[in-house]
Design a protein that fits this description.
This protein has no helices and eleven strands. By secondary structure, the protein is mostly beta strands.
Length: 111
């Protein structure tokens, strides 16, 4: 059974930073691409970033140069480092493998 568990969200002031983690199990983590997506209040799911099995990365324009996706295959863990956070980054953040998402972690950017 595929399981994804996000953590690391919270309340942060504009300009602040957070690092999200996603613990994965039930599949061959190191052999698969992984993604982060988010859902802001009242909006649909927005793709944020993807990292391939080989470590290649891609980002939505809205987060490029501010967010960094990474992975630790030894720990079966996906990360998202978020810098220079803006109020519009407020959302529930999910890691995704295929069509499977975790329960999400809330990120709120507010002064």
């Amino acid at each position: 059974e595929v399981r994804l568990m996000e953590s690391g969200g919270g309340l942060v002031q504009p300009g602040g930073s957070l690092r999200l983690s996603c613990a994965a199990s039930g599949f061959s983590f190191s052999r698969n691409a992984m993604s982060w997506v988010r859902q802001a209040p009242g909006k649909g799911i927005e793709w944020v970033s993807t990292i391939s099995s080989g470590g290649s990365t891609d980002y939505a324009d809205s987060v490029k140069d501010r967010f960094t996706i990474s992975r630790d295959n030894a720990k079966n863990t996906l990360y998202l480092r978020m810098n220079s956070l803006k109020p519009e980054d407020t959302a529930v953040y999910y890691c995704r493998f295929g069509i499977t998402r975790g329960q999400g972690t809330q990120v709120t950017v507010s002064s």
